[in-house]
């Protein structure tokens, strides 16, 4: 059984939530980690589920510990962030999606779900493409910000796919952003694309992404261990998008 454990009350007005579950290229996690750090967002809730490892997260210069899946808030910007330091097991994906969706409905939040689309032969200087899908009435957010529709049929898998699926079932307004990304290594360039041309215009929040550009190599190295853990997990446990071509 999954549930959201609220740690403190927050006052928000039609907030947007940015989801950062680990997945292909760690694009969602890199983007969400930047938001949490840059805006010094407040830890307001955690998420428990049978398929989430019972581990304790500690940080530099701090003696406290935190659960692995957390929700942060920024009241000034009406912004929420779902930050995870572990992959969510496929066995927990349905309950996880149900619990998160119910909580988002209760707080009247619009989620932005993030997924990487593995691209094998992308050159370092090539700008990743970004696409958008939506449930409920959220397609207007994509149209207003000129975010393209997908160029081909595809599927979003893992817990992010379960979240989008549940949003569709409940008619929750939700955006799914898919960005081309490195299939094997953390991809700060793809995360930068998500922030600059997806998250920033949709949320109306100004994000300084210079750090992602200046520290791209360092960020890749810092996230490498997590990427290795994700590679050891099954494809169903990794949030990712992939094409569904009729002929391969």
Automatic annotation (TrEMBL):
Membrane-spanning segments: none
Keywords, in A-Z order: Proteasome
InterPro entries referenced in this protein's UniProt entry, alphabetically: Proteasome_assmbl_chaperone_2, PSMG2_sf
Transport recorded as keyword: no
Gene Ontology cellular-component terms listed: proteasome complex
UniProt-listed Pfam families: PAC2 (PF09754)
Region of interest (Disordered), residue spans: 221-248
Highest taxon listed in the record's lineage: Archaea
PANTHER family, alphabetized: 3-ISOPROPYLMALATE DEHYDRATASE, 3-ISOPROPYLMALATE DEHYDRATASE-RELATED
Name recorded for this polypeptide: Proteasome assembly chaperone family protein
Organism for this UniProt entry: Salarchaeum japonicum
Lineage: Archaea, Methanobacteriati, Methanobacteriota, Stenosarchaea group, Halobacteria
